[in-house]
Every structure is written in C-alpha cells, then in structure tokens.
Known about the structure:
Blueprint: H1 12-20, H2 23-26, H3 34-42, H4 55-71, H5 100-103, H6 120-129, E1 132-144, E2 147-159, E3 173-175, E4 193-200, E5 203-211, H7 217-228
Parallel strand pairs: 3-5
Antiparallel strand pairs: 1-2, 1-4, 2-3, 4-5
Helix pairs in contact: 6-7
Amino acid sequence: MVLPNLLEHETMAEVKQQASSWVPLLNKNCHIGTQVFLCSLFAPVCLDRPIYPCRWLCEAVRDSCEPVMQFFGFYWPEMLKCDKFPEGDVCIAMTPPNATEASKPQGTTVCPPCDNELKSEAIIEHLCASEFALRMKIKEVKKENGDKKIVPKKKKPLKLGPIKKKELKKLVLYLKNGADCPCHQLDNLSHHFLIMGRKVKSQYLLTAIHKWDKKNKEFKNFMKKMKNHECPTFQSVFK
Length: 239
C-alpha cells in the first residue's frame, strides 16, 4: 500500500486507528462491496497515480449500509461523500453497476445491534469501539417512537464513558429504529446481559447485546481478556 492513503492518513498507526472504527460495520455484512470499497481508500495499491473507488460502488455501499449505521446512531461520513469519486474515469469496481449481487444488502432482518458474533475477539473489538459498557438485568422493554426503550433493573458499569455516576440510577437505553425488528436476546429477560453503546445527543443507544453466559467458552475468554486488554485511542471518522 502507499502512504499517505486516499483519506490522507500519513502513518500505519493512523490507518489502523481510523480503520478500527469500521470493524463493527464490516461484521454486519451490509453490502458485498463494503470491504473492497474501504480497502481501496485505507490501503491503496502502489501505482503511478491514485485509483479511487467508482462512484456507483460508493453509492451502493452507502445505500445498503447507512440504514444499518443509523441503528448505531451514525450517518454516512462527509469524508466519504460519493460525489467526490469518479464516474467515467478508471476506478475500482467489483462487478458492473447493474449487477444485482453488488447492490443487494447481505444482512438479516434481526436488529443489527442484536446480530453479533459470539467470539471473544469480536466482543473485545466492539467493547473498544463503544463509549460505554454495562453488565445488567433488564426490567422491561417497550416501543417508543419507532425505537425499543430498555429499562434496566440492576447494572454494573464496566466502562462508563459519557455516563455520569449520578445518571446510572435512572438510566434508560434505546435500540434505535428497533421497534419492529426482532432482538432474540430480549425474548428472555431473566438473564444478565452485556450491553455496549454510545451517547447520541441526549440518548444512550444500545449498539451490542450479549447474554452474560459464564458457561460459554468464548464469553469466558472475553471475560479473561477484558481484565488486561487496553483499547487503542483514536478519533472516529463518524461525527
């Protein structure tokens, strides 16, 4: 790859830090071309001149992935505005722009924050990308203005982030745009849960949920790694 890359990152450390903020989205498989699109920008090949992704590829990835991003309180970032990429010039593509596979979302109907891989490394990555993390029991879940409103019963902070201690007692979480999509973890509220999320304006949004299952091998590995793991610090591309 060549540095600076097409997003003007000048060092490998900066590339790794900025790319980390995209890991949760890549794991959602919202479009078949997401990885090609991002790699062409973060890790461009060494050629005589830069080759940007095609505008249609950017638009296809954006149109499929932004609805998923909105569940996490994100919108398509200004730095990836599609009209800055070429239409007729040489550009990076996967398949012709009219190919159905390239424009078809690959995700599921499950609420994206509930559709998480139960692997210790994936949970650690999501923990680092989240602003806060809590171990909690849930009192009730109800619909409110197109969201799922989650009222905790017992909670233990693992990572407070923007949550102030005095706010913990009356803390309410929201699954953004999640009123009508299934979240199977919430079918049985008798368990403890690992909840991760971020603050958007005045709301605390749930961005990942796992059953707190000490008997599960991967979750046990996560608990061990969490004690000594240091998350990298970086400025997210999402604002």
